[in-house]
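quick one, 556 residues, struct below
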Amino acid sequence: MNETVNLRYEPVGEGQFPLLGKVYAEAWKGSSSAFAPSAYRKKQTAEKAAERFKKQAKREKNLRFFLICRGKEPIGMYSTSLYPDRTGELRKLYLLPAYCGRGYGMEVLLHILWENRELDELFLWVPGANERAFRFYQKCGFAATGDEQEVAPEIGLSEYKMVLKAPLDVRAAVIRILLRESREAHASALQGLLAGPQPEEAEKTTPAPTLSGETADLFAGWLAALCGAGGVAGDEGNVAKALSNLLSRYTSDIEIDPFQNVIARIRRPGENKPHILLDAHIDEIGMLVQKTLKNGFVRCVRDGGIDPRLTAGQEVTLHGARDIPGVVVPPADGKLPASDGVLIDTGLSEEELKETLTPGDMVTFRGPFTRLGERRFTAKALDDRSCAAAILYALELTKGEELPCGVSVLFSSQEEIGGHGAKVAAERLRPDQAIASDVSFALTPDADPDECGKMGDGAMIGVAPVLDRPMTEALKALAGEKGIPYQLELMGGRTGTNADAIFCTGGGVRTALISLPQKYMHSPIEIVDAGDIAAVGRLMAEYLRHPLPAARKEEA
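---
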């Protein structure tokens, strides 16, 4: 079912206010029939609405009205106001009764968010008695602020404020998935009604779905926001805030601890049910300012495992009192640069640098987020924010489901310098089971095929002595049963990921590892595949639906 793709949005001109008033009056009467008395609704005529809108448009220069049209036929209207503080208000959004409940509302809201994606937030006011509208906006990610205003005291009608925070393009991508799922459910139900009762058949394996453009767009929105936030080990505050914002769709129980770990408790475990932790680290490799020098130069030390071959000539950003662009100086002797003592040229004077930078300030590489075709992305910090996107996708897939387990999410700090954040947080959370996720090496023409995964071939399920064998086998079985593409990654000892820190916390945590194949690790041009992100997220979601029982404590 895809009946809303031909919608168009027509700005209302001087001579169109009578038509706007007519559409609004009919749509408003339909939506308010459940809470506004008949006598009150009769007073809200098309003529009054048209005159009111015309006066508002002349008085408020930032107010714009639009007719929502399907072909040549108007089916609704909306209006917005944009303010100087980078906020916007969705003043009205109404559809004619015949077009309600058919996906048009989400389609229009998606358009509005995308058109205004540069805003820091979009807010609106919902009549308190209009429960249907409240549920709609809540489903689309808007949150009630608690603010109230009276709008029609003669009938006791008040409105309540709801807000959707940036990034609005990410929110739009989430709504696009909700819209697609709504259409698919409608089409499936319709097909079932037309087909009539069918004979029972044996259960079949679910085939792996083709990656949709909507899902790839969702990942692109998440990753553009996450990779654009700086966060070297020990200074992850910016990316921690970005992830807290994205997690707010799934829970309000979110904290950023003193180590800048992001901890979200999605569902509390029931009695005798396992508590499962999903982990991905959020710190990126980078450098720290060591000292400022004459003629605009800055000397830096590494923060994380920088490959010296990739530093010379790179563009960087120095995050001091303000962000300063710079370039890494190639060594004059042509030799391989050292990973410590890197020189950066900023072009500023020594005085300007001393006013802006202090020792310990963060330095990040400037690897802009870019799509390579429809499925692949390149940027800095995809290690490990692509796995954070996979965890968000698992939460999206299981949102609203009754799961046989408790779920916590850990977006951990300081993995690149030893997994310290994961160890600290796991000691606090004490999960029964954990799934760590990190990137691993993807095959390139100059690499050893036995040491690499294949990009586009799906999730990499880890096999190692420190990993829990029953969990590993359960992941393999689920991937096979559900048609989720996967490959194995064999390690002879430790894994080099947060799994090494988590499995030995407390009295021991059953831990599995799902990795994501990535090209050009620890560089500003890391590359991942959207299909692999989807495979990791789907496999996590299936494990949350079918976890191993919480038997470790009884066995002990």
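Confidence is low (pLDDT under 50) at residues 1-5, 189-209, 552-556.
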